[in-house]
């Protein structure tokens, strides 16, 4: 587990910085506008959202190493060619890089589900969420520092090398994606989607979407608030406080003796985010975002834990891919939604819009998770699965 988290951290840190690196390359290297840079970022994000379920399904069917070798090769070609591509070709390369991005995050989550017992899983997913927060704190900052000393093209090459190295490391480790008692899941056949993509899973995806929508909106609201106060240079400090408190929250949640419902965690995250708009300068904003940070990693880890519990081993790759797609969609839509609220009101309205979006998703997840469809007569495959589950409970 330690080796996997260490190697995947390298790749995840590089992946979190790709948008920043491409933005700086388009603006500084190609001397184009930020709107053009946004087009490249949108192409990459679209590819990431579409590629999650696709790569997950390929992992379920073809195995981990095959998918990693394909994606590592694609990343090598894409990032090596970025500095020599014209803008239109760069859009296509960014989409391809996103579509076939090395799936380190989803692979790490699948491996955690396979390598831990039920009692260890919540703490392990909390640690994985902490790893994600650290990657978001380190990756973009390293890119900005490196871009100040070398050309943006060299930074892009270095980022691609880190992604390739991380993906290769995960392939060499080849972590198990199924527990010992799940080893025959592939030979038993893939269960139909209607058996696992039900109301409970849709509730999880709604919470995943709402969480990243809120977080993306909070980042924009922080910048807007400090820009109005003439203190935009302090935004990095506020974001750092947000990240550090999220790490603390993840560690605390992982140490608890019992878990909390994911919709409750998201609801609390939304409630503590709304009052952050009352802060009007950077010291008070640092204090105001502490509550948001403390609930961020626990909410993300609860979502990952729920996905692992609700999906059979034979489709766990596709399920974690759907989770990644829901979170990518939230990141992509959060900023525009909050931006409209800021333009229509004041910067404080950005925190309110982000918090209300989180509360809406939490309410949706709560209502869906409390609904129970009427039982269906089991098909032969489902009947066998039910008998195995009952036998396990009896034992």
Structure notes:
It is a single chain. The model is unreliable at 374-395 (pLDDT under 50). The protein folds into 2 domains: 1-176, MFS general substrate transporter like domains (Growth Hormone, Chain: A), CATH 1.20.1250.20; 191-372, MFS general substrate transporter like domains (Growth Hormone, Chain: A). The two termini are 29 Å apart. α1 crosses α7 (118-147) and α11 packs across α14 (290-310). The radius of gyration is 21 Å and the shape is globular. It is mainly alpha-helical and 395 residues long. The chain contains 17 helices and no strands. Keywords: Membrane, Transmembrane, Transmembrane helix. Residues 370-395 are annotated as: Disordered. Residues 384-395 have a biased composition (Basic and acidic residues). It comes from Streptomyces lonegramiae. This is MFS transporter.
* CATH-derived topology of the largest domain: Growth Hormone, Chain: A
Residue stretches low in confidence (pLDDT < 50, at least 5 long) are 374-395
What percentage of amino acids are in beta strands?
under 5%
* CATH H-level homologous superfamily name of the largest domain: MFS general substrate transporter like domains
Let me know the largest β-sheet: none
State the assembly state of the protein chains.
Answer: single chain
Which value, in Å, is the CA radius of gyration? 21 Å
Globally, the shape reads globular
CATH class of the largest domain: Mainly Alpha
Helix vs. strand class: mainly alpha
Count of separate DSSP helical elements: 17
The CATH architecture of the largest domain can be given as: Up-down Bundle
Q: Termini separation (Å)?
A: 29 Å
Can you tell me the number of structural domains?
A: 2
The tally of strands reads 0
